[in-house]
Amino acid sequence: MYENKAKYTNLIKTEAKRLGFLSCGISKAEFLEEEAPRLEAYLNKNWQGEMHYLENYFDKRLDPTKLVPGSKSVISLLLNYYPQEKQREDTYQVSKYAYGRDYHFVIKDKLKDLLNTMRDEIGDIEGRAFVDSAPVLDKAWAARSGLGWIGKHSNLLSKQTGSFYFIAELIVDLDLEYDTPVTDHCGSCTACIDACPTDAIVEPYKVDGSRCISYFTIELKDELPNSYKNQFEDWMFGCDICQDVCPWNRFSKPHNEPLFNPHPELLEKDRKGWEELTRETFNEIFRKSAVKRTKFQGLRRNIDFLKD
């Protein structure tokens, strides 16, 4: 049995690499005891703001066996999105993860391929793929699987590759060899805390989501609060400030996923170009992008807030 576990684990990690994933780690599917009080405290402080979906499925968020009955392993995967080319400096910024094709679709396809290969090579496996759209604590599982540590900005960090990557999971009913967590390497650094314009990182490792620029520009559907005027710098969709200033991201290397390459106009437009954005141009540039989540009116609202 042990030999099979080692063989299956090696097969999964080899196939994950072939599919283009940055890294793959595996942990036992069980109740996340340490995360329970943290999640409860986060919700009690209303740091989720208008993201009410975070209040749902509390038990399932903490226990994958409630999400996928009979599950034994959580396979965590990282996919690099750090771009080769970035937007010009005199412009309104889009978070780098949204430069190209919507990651949900790109990663879902890769996860399906991985699960199909597992079924072909190992046999009948029950499992589900998750990409940031279900009650799964992605960062907690990735950290438990040894893929990095949770930094002071609450993002997963790796010494080798920084933090510019997506996290996804396969939760399966297969016994595998489990990885162990790595140690924290933030040390005394406070670069992310010092750089956040809205003071969303209220203390090391604790982020008030309702103060985050990403929250305001993507999640909040109401009018943007005037009390935050002139604090968004040039971010019209998402925000990368805490990642951009992190010393570990000097090790970020460009991805090799063609689907994540940006539309040329995204790189070319200056502030005036975005201020003149039409619905037709929006649909063209962001046709299959995660930016569509804000819809045209949402992005217009963000641009108007920045330029006034």
From TrEMBL:
Cob(II)alamin binds at residues 61, 132, 156, 167, 214, 239-240. Coiled coil: none annotated. It catalyses: epoxyqueuosine(34) in tRNA + AH2 = queuosine(34) in tRNA + A + H2O. Pfam families: Fer4_16, QueG_DUF1730. It is found in: Cytoplasm. Binds 2 [4Fe-4S] clusters per monomer. InterPro entries: 4Fe4S_Fe-S-bd, 4Fe4S_Fe_S_CS, QueG, QueG_DUF1730. Keywords: 4Fe-4S, Cobalamin, Cobalt, Cytoplasm, Iron, Iron-sulfur, Metal-binding, Oxidoreductase, Queuosine biosynthesis, tRNA processing. Its cofactor is [4Fe-4S] cluster; cob(II)alamin. One of its GO terms (molecular function) is cobalamin binding. Gene3D superfamilies: 3.30.70.20. Residues 174-206 form the 4Fe-4S ferredoxin-type domain. GO terms for biological process: tRNA queuosine(34) biosynthetic process. Pathway: tRNA modification; tRNA-queuosine biosynthesis. Monomer. Belongs to the QueG family. This is Epoxyqueuosine reductase. The gene is queG.
